[in-house]
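#structure-requests
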Amino acid sequence: MFDWRASTNVSVADAYWPVPERLNLLGFETYGYSSDVPLPPSVAVADPGKPVELRLRANYAICSGEIFTYHDESFAVRLPAGAANRSAHGRLTEAFSERVPKTGDAGLRIVGVIAMGSGKNLIMEVMVASEAGFSLPPM
């Protein structure tokens, strides 16, 4: 969970998740990241003539092998008013920004949904089709 509400001079703030990798963890197929992953932020400044104070409270988990640790951290940075200078981390952020799924019509459509079982044993099967076809879909 990301909470940006304590930020000042910000109308909208969010972090975007790059497409995860398919991983095998303890014999189970899952999705995640095998190394550090910067989450490219998107911030809309309310008044560009005033400084911005970004305050983020983040609840997240880090998995390493068989160890899972949960974190509740707070981060803050103050940015002066005016045009920003390129950060030393700019290229890294741009590289991971390219891995964030784009919005819009990807040519996918749901062609059927089947619900089986009930209660805790409920399984939902969703069938999709793509105009471009699938190339090794990680399903």
